């Protein structure tokens, strides 16, 4: 697990990154800039319980590629979940919270994940652990209005103009951050590498 000093604002950006691409880096850059984060932890997960493990590249490969893409020194690429045998985000966040008293964390996700967030294990607990920043992704802009989690925690949404305060706020609190969007997706890249045409 990366080191963070007390009082820091730190973004948590997790995913299978299979493979990582410029779209992921763009989400990280937008999050750091708009929320004025001191660090961002790029958390490469051992596996995704909602996806077939047979499609997953080796963790070491995804970790190495992530380090190549995430060039900002404030971004800390890590795969500590594997060492602790963690599969679910709720458990990851509880471990981070326990081990880092005095650090202000915010969970970061792309808007494409917001649509399916209510299928995640203990998704309500995730929303009650740390504030959440949802970064716009192509085709997912309206998910901040229509998704189950958006409706469930509508009362906790703050204006994106207040994004710099989000990491310091008590959960539940979340915002939707608009900005430049990349049409790249890991699925399209994997399909392209297999000789198939990436989806439009």
UniProtKB/TrEMBL annotation:
Keywords, ordered alphabetically: ATP-binding, NAD, Nucleotide-binding, Nucleotidyltransferase, Pyridine nucleotide biosynthesis, Transferase
Gene3D superfamilies in the cross-refs: HUPs (3.40.50.620)
Pathway(s): Cofactor biosynthesis; NAD(+) biosynthesis; deamido-NAD(+) from nicotinate D-ribonucleotide: step 1/1
InterPro entries: Cyt_trans-like, NadD/NMNAT, Rossmann-like_a/b/a_fold
GO molecular function, one term: nicotinate-nucleotide adenylyltransferase activity
EC number: 2.7.7.18
GO process annotations (BP): NAD+ biosynthetic process
Superkingdom as given in the UniProt entry: Bacteria
Record-annotated Cytidyltransferase-like domain positions: 12-191
Enzyme class at the top of the EC tree: transferase
Catalytic activity, reaction form: nicotinate beta-D-ribonucleotide + ATP + H(+) = deamido-NAD(+) + diphosphate
Family classification: Belongs to the NadD family.
Free-text function comment from the UniProt entry: Catalyzes the reversible adenylation of nicotinate mononucleotide (NaMN) to nicotinic acid adenine dinucleotide (NaAD).
Name of the protein in its database record: Probable nicotinate-nucleotide adenylyltransferase
Organism: Mesorhizobium alhagi CCNWXJ12-2
Encoding gene per record: nadD
């Amino acid at each position: 697990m990366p080191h963070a000093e007390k009082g820091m604002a730190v973004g948590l950006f997790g995913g299978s990154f299979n493979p990582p691409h410029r779209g992921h880096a763009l989400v990280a850059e937008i999050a750091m800039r708009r929320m004025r984060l001191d660090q961002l932890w790029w958390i490469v997960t051992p596996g995704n319980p909602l996806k077939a493990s047979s499609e997953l590249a080796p963790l070491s490969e995804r970790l190495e590629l992530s380090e190549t893409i995430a060039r900002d020194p404030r971004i800390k690429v890590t795969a500590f979940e594997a060492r602790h045998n963690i599969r679910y985000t709720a458990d990851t966040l509880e471990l981070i919270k326990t081990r880092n008293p005095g650090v202000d964390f915010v969970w970061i996700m792309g808007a494409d994940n917001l649509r399916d967030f209510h299928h995640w294990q203990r998704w309500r607990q995730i929303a009650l652990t740390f504030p959440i920043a949802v970064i716009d992704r192509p085709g997912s802009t309206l998910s901040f209005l229509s998704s189950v989690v958006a409706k469930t925690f509508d009362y906790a949404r703050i204006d994106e103009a207040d994004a710099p305060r989000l990491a310091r706020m008590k959960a539940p609190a979340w915002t939707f951050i608009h900005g430049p969007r990349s049409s790249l997706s890991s699925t399209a890249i994997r399909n392209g590498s297999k000789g198939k045409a990436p989806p439009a």
